Amino acid sequence: MKTVKVNINTINDVKNFVSIVSRCDYDVDIVSGRYAIDAKSIMGIFSLDLSKELTLNIHSDDCADFLEEIKGYIAE
């Protein structure tokens, strides 16, 4: 499992992010505080506080291609 911090700020960011994550064969979760949401759920992501940095849990060790696709969302 890999964990990265991400920022998803706008409605278009959410739509694009979910589109990318939906193509993954493995599970990806977004954690905000005590809430863990399936990153493939657009409604789930909208239920989070998007003004804060989110934690992305990727349930795969072979996810270099996915990380490259979402590099624009990864917090430095």
Short descriptors:
76 residues; alpha+beta; Histidine-containing Protein, Chain: A; 3 helices; globular
Concise summary:
The protein is 30% helix and 25% strand.
Written account of the structure:
The protein has 76 residues and is α+β, with helices and mostly antiparallel strands. It has a single domain (2-69), classed as Histidine-containing Protein, Chain: A. The chain is built from 3 helices and 4 strands, in the order E-H-E-E-H-E-H. Strands 1-4-2-3 form a 4-stranded antiparallel sheet, with no helix packed on it. A hairpin with a 2-residue loop joins strand 2 (28-32) and strand 3 (35-38). The protein is globular, with a radius of gyration of 11 Å.
Total count of domains: 1
Low-confidence stretches: none
Specify the CATH architecture. 2-Layer Sandwich
Which descriptor suits the 3D outline? globular
Mean of all residue-level pLDDT scores: 94
How far do the termini sit from each other? 19 Å
CATH class group: Alpha Beta
Q: Which structural class do the helices and strands define?
A: alpha+beta
Sheet bearing the most strands, described?
Answer: 4 strands, antiparallel
Spatial order of strands in the largest sheet: 1-4-2-3
Tally of helical segments = 3
Proportion of strand residues: 25-35%
Helix content: 25-40%
Report the C-alpha radius of gyration, rounded: 11 Å
Number of strands: 4
In the CATH hierarchy, the third-tier topology is known as Histidine-containing Protein, Chain: A
Name the helix and strand elements from N-terminus to C-terminus, one letter apiece: EHEEHEH
